[in-house]
Amino acid sequence: MKKSSKSGQFSLGINTGFAVNRFSEHDEWIRIVGQDLGLRRAQITADMLNVDLPGKVLVKQIQVINQACEDHDVVITSSFTGAFTRVNHLAHPDPDIRQHWISWFKKFVDLSVDVGCTSMGSHFGIFTQRDNNDPIIRQQRRQQNIDGWHEIAHYAKERGLKFLTWEPMSISREQGETLIETHSLHTDVNNGAPLPFKLCLDVDHGDVSSTNPDDTDPYAWLSEFATVSPLIHLKQSHKNKSGHWPFTREHNDVGKIIPERVVQTLTDNGCEEAEFLLELSFREREPMDSTVIDVLKESVGFWRNTITQ
Q1: With a threshold of 0.85, does the pTM exceed it?
Q2: How far apart are CA 45 and CA 139, in angstroms?
Q3: Is the peptide bond preceding residue 287 cis, with omega within 30 degrees of 0?
Q4: What is the CATH number of domain 9-304?
Q5: Taking a C-beta distance cutoff of 8 angstroms, is the pair 190, 197 a contact?
Q6: What pLDDT, in 10s, does the model give residues 182-195?
């Protein structure tokens, strides 16, 4: 990987995973982002606004989102699928269901454009156990998956998005679980693509069953894909990669993710610009449910000295 002595341009934002079913009012979660956390950037997840809702409902909700962003000086820069859209979608065995999800993603493109995003993203697609365990069928599903993304990319280009992103995951069924697999899939989806595909890199992903220690080393991932990862999902990562941990003292004391090292790794490997997005989710349990804002503030504070606005 080519080294660079240039300093990258980095910004800090947040993914709306923390808000799902908790701060469902758009004016409220946007106020939290802009005022309570003092952030200017957000990544909206599909869980915040179901694009299968009637058109007039979507129009009304989009107006609320855009007004709240103006009121609180927040920009929604990207969109992404979420916990409730972590399904097979473009890798589903049934062609009718795959076609439904292609149409769904086109509507998600529309939503993304309407709230001001420059990119839309998702996990690539999830195989069933049966498909994943049959090498011939798996290859067929993989190609169908790529073809589906290319159809969506044609539409996204027409609507004015600059690029699409996909997120390497942690098991074979969810794709991109190792450095090698991510290289292979990223090359193949960009081959003949009407719009560039880039990575939304998650510092806590990677296959814990891999015999290659680099596959679970966040800094190996950051080094390897520094130039093609404009979006970085942040959470504290433990040795066993067991959860979307926040950047609080108890987790930072045992976690791998150190802001200065993350930034230095990217700049040393040629990254010129990236948006760091806190991707934190919280179970519906007390006392966590009532302390979400305080935890988010502590997590933002942990990064603020390293990544300025």
Answers
A1: yes
A2: 29
A3: yes
A4: 3.20.20.150
A5: yes
A6: 999 999 999 999 99
